[in-house]
Design a protein that fits this description.
The structure is a homotrimer. Chain A is an alpha/beta fold. The first copy, chain A, has helices at 4-21, 34-43, 54-63, 78-91, 107-119, 128-137, 161-171, 206-218, 223-244, 248-261, 264-268; strands at 27-28, 67-70, 96-99, 123-127, 174-178, 182-185, 189-193, 272-276. Chain A contains 11 helices and 8 strands. In chain A, α6 crosses α7. The model of chain A has no long low-confidence stretch (mean pLDDT 95). Chain A binds chain B through residues 30-33, 35-36, 73-76, 102, 105-109, 149-152, 201-205, 247-250, 252-253, and chain B through 24, 26, 31, 34-35, 38-39, 42-43, 47-53, 55-56, 59, 75, 77, 252-257, 260-261.
């Protein structure tokens, strides 16, 4: 059974390891928020590299210790890039984070997200609507809701809990549902991480940046610790940033600064609740 | 006849409606300023989604209440994406904002902008050079000037007034010319919106962000009100940001924050001049 | 022999000319840092335009006084765009800056960078690993090291000095190696520019922005003056920004503001060391 204490100590270790090792977590991600993703990855002590070409995806799957895949703004050549990268990730047993942004929009996105099922993403991160929609697409759980409106969620985190559990039990990895209180589950333990700020919804890309930072922690920690560490980090830094700045652009600036400044101990002592399945 | 009072009350309504309804205005736009466009759209209370693929353009044309098309950084597949999106916009009677960025540069841009003529954009937003060049390209008005230097204007707003009128009379929509004093016309009434800051020319993407925010207001208001509300909003927020920060990066940050903070009443009472054609 | 005094006076002239003439330096560059590149170019007084299509590259090679090419995030169509732009640059004798980002990653990047050898880039700017790897790829100098880790350098500037000299002697242009102390050489004189900040490694794109700003100065100055002016500018502005802000996002904001504010005289009197070959 994973205890609160276990989590606190492992969060602290993950944060310190990344700051010491400066690990690279390459991304195939959308063009809108690349800058934010990269700067968030750098702020926590990691390193970033964004790519578009199939052979570069294969190379990264071989060289990197974890990869971030976000299907936000697909272009035609992503069909080959993502497919070949997925096969290379599997072949090299490289863990990866999937961000099923805007699931439900368009044929290529549907095809790629269906394909992902076979490859069992190590971490799946999305908002409640996306998690519900992915569990449905993979025929794992049929929940009400999951109508995605572009990149926004129309559902609460609680509504997505069963879908998240079903996805995690299927992949054997971890699923993180972002929202007011964030839910992280490996299909067994369920963690609710508190904090953050409503201002996250007033800036673009905080979900993408969170996924990218999860990939950074995945280079040094288990899926559940990586997903949880990144989430706790964002919640702590978000809370502090919102205290300093009640407006979106200043909030975003302070948020990146806080990611850089915050002590591992402070994140490790942040507020969360752990539930273990019987 | 549209009076000053009419405009003031409708600006206020448009701003409040967007803040209440959080409408999404998807974009096909350039890669350079996507982040700024999206964050400006979010700051005024809207929601953003950027896309590249033809079937996603068609879907957005069907689902969204207004779309933003900016031809800034064309890639090869834009030929199909923009063509198919235009047809879907027409079929679904969805209004859209056209930003003819860098008109005159390259074959694909020329082809797409020529094609646009048939589809009569609901709002056309550009700098003076772009508006003059578009009226010429569409054989509506032949004005001196309109040589576009990349993304910069080499002409003043006044020089583009006849081109703007000709375009608006042809489309039956609204044309907005950005510059020191901004001109907005529906081919009948002409509005000059004052304010803003010269610092807008020292940051990249303020024109794109303005076009994107016009699309947000177009989800809840008529073309002329939408174009005018966005312009007045930018002028008020720009003036306030420049008072707080005389340097470009701080100005941009304050500008986004002001878009978020500024009261609808303050924007509605901003300085402008209305002229009705006989 | 180029003296310190010679450099100080030419730096000042270059900075003032750009601020007076607002020259455009178009880019073919990566999608991650386009916004930063463009805003840095604007902050120093230049103008920006980013492009993807082959005929636009050809047009820019003809119209612009200098072009920036950064191979950071290649997409399939870059093969044709970069090849045709290189031929047009040569035909029009337009100088250009090459940024061999992530050299060693993938086939297209290798092909394009090999192709560049024939076209002798006017300025080559990279970190130490990239410069070592490029000299190796072009069979000009075989140095230990040059294993590139994504976009990060794993070598010091000093280790790349011989590679930089070999490249500059081959191209007849200038080579700039970014690092703790920056090295600029035209194959004869070697300049070390001091200052800057370690925070540059905690934000994404400072190298790209530096390359873009070199292209801006290349519109008004010789290759060595252009490369050196941009470097000295970044070092001065970086030092000042770091004094104001010890965290990455605030540092980046202050850095752009300082690029805009700093006086030409202050940059011209910055710390550097010049060595002339016998």
């Amino acid at each position: 059974m994973m205890t609160e204490k276990h989590f606190r100590s492992n969060i602290q270790i993950a944060i310190e390891k990344v700051r010491a090792e400066n690990p690279m977590a390459p991304s195939i991600t959308n063009t809108v928020t690349q800058d934010f993703v990269a700067n968030a990855q750098l702020a926590v002590g990691g390193s970033a590299a964004m790519i578009y070409l199939p052979d570069e995806g294969e190379l990264m799957a071989k060289l990197a210790r974890a990869v971030y895949i976000n299907v936000g703004t697909l272009m035609p050549f992503y069909a080959e890039t993502i497919s070949r990268t997925l096969r290379a990730l599997e072949k090299n047993k490289t863990p990866f984070v999937l961000d099923p942004v805007a699931i439900g929009m368009g044929n290529l996105r549907a095809e790629l997200l269906l394909q992902m099922k076979t490859f069992k993403p190590t971490i799946i991160r999305g908002n409640a609507s996306e998690i519900i929609a992915l569990a449905k697409l993979w025929n794992l759980h049929e929940e009400e809701g999951g109508e995605v409106r572009g990149v926004d969620s129309t559902e609460t985190v609680d509504k997505a809990a069963h879908s998240a559990l079903a996805l995690a039990q299927y992949t054997g990895g971890t699923v993180a549902v972002s929202g007011e209180n964030d839910l992280i589950t490996n299909g067994n333990v369920m963690i609710y991480s508190l904090g953050g700020s409503k201002l996250f919804s007033k800036i673009t890309g905080s979900g993408c940046a969170l996924g990218g930072v999860m990939a950074v922690y995945l280079t040094v920690a288990s899926p559940i610790i990586a997903a949880f560490t990144a989430t706790a980090m964002f919640n702590c830094a978000g809370t502090r940033a919102a205290e300093k700045a009640p407006t979106p652009a200043s909030f975003k600036l302070n948020f990146i600064d806080e990611l850089y400044k915050i002590s591992a101990a402070d994140v490790a002592s942040s507020e969360f609740a752990v539930f273990n399945a019987e």
